[in-house]
Recover the amino acids of this structure.
């Protein structure tokens, strides 16, 4: 994910390709790239990284009605596995799946530890949802700390909110997306509301931060899945 980007400089063709032809070619390539990216995100072949690791590309969703796309996973949805949800903050005001991926690798993890990341407008769009390769492959997370971390990593869905919850509350767009995501996961997987945890409830940490609006959030997700 944290690959360096390079820019290729196109040379001038002496044959004098027309401006119209160049425009048509650019549009065609853009369309092909967009379609190819969508197919990969919805379950195509894994993307091969330069370091030899293979990761499924992340699916980005931002339209309100697009949340159901998260259940179009590459691996069959492993409903019996998922028994809880754990909510985290990133601990930094700026973040993206790429930066979190890099942090995870510095900790010698095999990739992004969370199943989902929700942006705050700094590093990724405000309220934008990124679905990590662990969710796409229905794999265990690497997001929980504490004595019971192994169980939560194996059976709990990790959601990371970009931001430092001790310094600033989540944005309205993050909150809306989080409620939408948690409600959809609970409904699809049959997870009770009392199995939605703040990370601080299962480990000696303060995540998702003292300014996270836990009381009102729980009111919004209350009820049967």
């Amino acid at each position: 994910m944290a690959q360096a980007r390079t820019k290729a400089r196109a040379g001038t063709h002496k044959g004098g390709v027309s401006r119209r032809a160049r425009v048509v070619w650019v549009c065609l390539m853009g369309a092909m790239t967009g379609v190819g990216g969508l197919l990969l995100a919805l379950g195509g072949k894994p993307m091969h990284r330069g370091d030899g690791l293979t990761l499924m590309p992340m699916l980005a969703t931002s339209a309100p009605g697009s949340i159901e796309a998260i259940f179009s996973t590459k691996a069959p949805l492993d409903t019996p596995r998922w028994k809880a949800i754990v909510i985290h903050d990133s601990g930094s005001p700026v973040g993206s799946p790429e930066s979190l991926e890099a942090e995870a690798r510095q900790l010698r993890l095999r990739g992004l530890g969370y199943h989902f990341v929700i942006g705050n407008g700094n590093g990724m769009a405000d309220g934008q949802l990124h679905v990590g390769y662990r969710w796409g492959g229905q794999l265990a997370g690497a997001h929980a700390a504490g004595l019971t971390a192994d169980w939560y990593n194996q059976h709990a869905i990790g959601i990371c909110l970009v931001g430092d919850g001790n310094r600033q509350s989540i944005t309205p767009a993050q909150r809306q997306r989080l409620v939408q995501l948690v409600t959809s996961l609970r409904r699809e997987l049959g997870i009770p509301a009392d199995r939605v945890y703040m990370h601080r409830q299962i480990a000696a940490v303060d995540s998702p931060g003292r300014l996270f609006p836990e009381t009102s959030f729980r009111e919004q997700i209350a009820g049967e899945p």
